[in-house]
Write a structure and sequence with these properties.
- With 292 residues, this protein is α/β, with parallel strands linked by helices.
- It is 46% helix and 15% strand.
- It has one domain: TIM Barrel (Alpha-Beta Barrel), CATH 3.20.20.
- The strands form two sheets. An eight-stranded parallel barrel has the order 1-4-5-6-7-8-9-10, surrounded by seven helices. The chain has a two-stranded antiparallel sheet with strand order 2-3.
- Helix 2 packs across helix 6, helix 3 crosses helix 5 and helix 10 packs parallel to helix 12.
């Protein structure tokens, strides 16, 4: 495990222990079980979507709040720009996040019918419930941080709460673990997306080539998500041609003074590319054109 993930694991454990001291797991489960459902994650039939991210700080990019007057206005811009979901960082040590940001985002996004995803370094089902209590409709689960039994426990908790999961991998070994875990869940009623994060966790640099190198290794039957490194409209076209169905975009949108417009351009390019690819596949199947 990289230095960053080791630090985040310890920070997550400390926060978990403090939260349990304030509210028992039984009391938290009772509270979230009585909540109305969060907005569902709905993906466009046009073949491409964006999960837009709200984070005030990044270990690699530093302060990201210059173009953000408040969480509510930023996530509202994302929803109006067409984001299928909004990822909200709740990790305080390196990302400037807090659970209150999640609550505030969910409050303004619910009328737009857009779900919020808790993005954090989760290690225990309690934190999935904690996210749901704050209004989240989905959670991030990082394969590299957890053994298979712990991944399964987090997925089970999310499924019981009708929350979607973004299961995040960083390399081929992570994807192999993800495939093993998911192979045991074919009969489960749940919504799981599988993300490939192309950030090097030691150098904190982006290796965009990882998205192409491992595109064929993404688990079949699960929506593939490209994470990190999607910075331009051209990047969107590239990842869609590689087969990715969703992009999680954070720093680029946070740095934009007009995120709604940027989202619109990216979605338009991604969907046009996806529809063009689908049309070509249909023509190949009909024998109208030859496969290259």
């Amino acid at each position: 495990m990289s230095g960053l993930l080791a630090q985040m694991t310890q920070s997550s454990l400390t926060r978990l222990e403090a939260a349990r001291a304030r509210e028992s797991e039984k009391a938290l489960w009772t509270r979230v079980s009585d909540m109305p459902p969060a907005p569902a994650l709905r993906l466009s039939p046009e073949g491409f979507d964006i999960i837009a991210e709200c984070k005030l700080h990044s270990p690699s990019a530093g302060d990201l709040s210059a173009n953000t007057s408040d969480v509510e206005s930023r996530v509202t811009e994302y929803a109006c720009g067409g984001a299928c979901a909004v990822s909200v960082l709740t990790e305080p040590l390196r990302f400037g996040g807090q659970l209150e940001h999640l609550t505030r985002a969910a409050r303004v996004l619910t009328p737009h019918n857009v779900p919020v995803m808790r993005k954090d370094f989760l290690i225990d089902p309690y934190q999935v419930m904690e996210g749901r209590a704050a209004g989240a409709g989905g959670v991030l689960v990082i394969v590299r941080m957890l053994d298979k039994s712990r991944i399964t426990a987090l997925l089970d908790c999310a499924a019981m709460l009708k929350m979607f999961v973004l299961l995040e991998a960083f390399d081929a070994a992570d994807l192999e673990i993800a495939r093993d875990v998911l192979a045991q869940r074919r009969r489960h009623d749940e919504q799981i997306l599988v993300g490939l994060n192309c950030r090097d966790l030691d150098k904190l640099t982006v290796e965009l080539s990882r998205l192409s190198e491992l595109a064929e290794s993404m688990p079949a039957g699960f929506t593939p998500v490209a994470e990190s490194g999607v910075n331009t409209v051209n990047d969107v076209g590239t990842i869609v041609r590689l087969g990715y169905r969703v992009a999680l975009i954070g720093t680029t949108l946070m740095n934009s003074p007009q995120p709604r417009e940027l989202l619109g351009r990216m979605l338009s390019t991604g969907r046009q590319t996806a529809m063009s690819m689908a049309t070509r596949k249909l023509r190949i199947a009909k024998g109208e054109v030859r496969e290259e």
